[in-house]
Amino acid sequence: MTESSPALLADQLERAAVTRYARGDLDGAARRLEVLLEMQPERAEVWTLLGVCHRRQRQRNQALRAFRRAVQADPDDMHALLQLGEMLCSSSRPVEGIPLLRAVFEKTRVEGKAPEAQPELARRAGATLEAIQMTLRKWADTQREGAPS
């Protein structure tokens, strides 16, 4: 074995995981990502992909754990922050998720560009924040309608 064997194995695991993910084999992708993360636990993008696999399988706790690890590994990874923010909001934890979504929106949006011309992460964070705001407005309206006069 050469010194580069661990790096080659890591590359092979990553390629295999991405291929399986693309084919829709989320279990197979997740297993390979977990092995890769045992070798390279500092890889935020790998933690994020593992979180996406778990999220798509509706495994909320595992997805949250993976997204948190991704953000710990790289607090400036906007994709990881977006995923964690969305996951927290969809897990009835908007107090934790909304600030993350706002941070992604503010850091990725381009001043002066139309909404449809914004980078994908800014559009996605903005759309999620807007959906939350609309839901809160509807909830407030129903509360006012049901309140005694």
Summary keywords:
149 residues, mainly alpha, Serine Threonine Protein Phosphatase 5, Tetratricopeptide repeat, 77% helix, elongated
Polypeptide structure, described:
The protein has 149 residues and is mainly α. The chain has a single domain (41-146), classed as Serine Threonine Protein Phosphatase 5, Tetratricopeptide repeat. Helices cover 77% and strands 0% of the residues. The chain has 7 helices and no strands. It has helices spanning 5-23, 26-39, 44-56, 60-73, 78-90, 94-108, 120-146. Helix 4 packs antiparallel against helix 5 (78-90) and helix 6 packs across helix 7 (120-146).
Gist?
With 149 residues, the protein is mainly alpha-helical. Helices cover 77% and strands 0% of the residues. Helix 3 packs parallel to helix 5 (78-90) and helix 5 (78-90) runs antiparallel to helix 6 (94-108).
- How helical, in percent, are the residues? over 70%
Q: Name the CATH superfamily assignment.
A: Tetratricopeptide repeat domain
How would you classify the helix and strand content by structural class?
Answer: mainly alpha
Shape: elongated
**Rg, Cα atoms, Å:** 19 Å
Approximately how much beta-strand content do the residues carry? under 5%
Number of domains: 1
Q: What is the number of helices?
A: 7
CATH topology: Serine Threonine Protein Phosphatase 5, Tetratricopeptide repeat
Q: What is the residue-mean pLDDT, rounded to a whole number?
A: 94
Low-confidence stretches: none
Distance between the termini: 80 Å
Instruction: Indicate the CATH architecture.
Output: Alpha Horseshoe
Main beta-sheet strand count, sense and barrel state: none
Say how many strands there are: 0
Topology order in helix (H) and strand (E) letters: HHHHHHH
Q: Which CATH class applies here?
A: Mainly Alpha
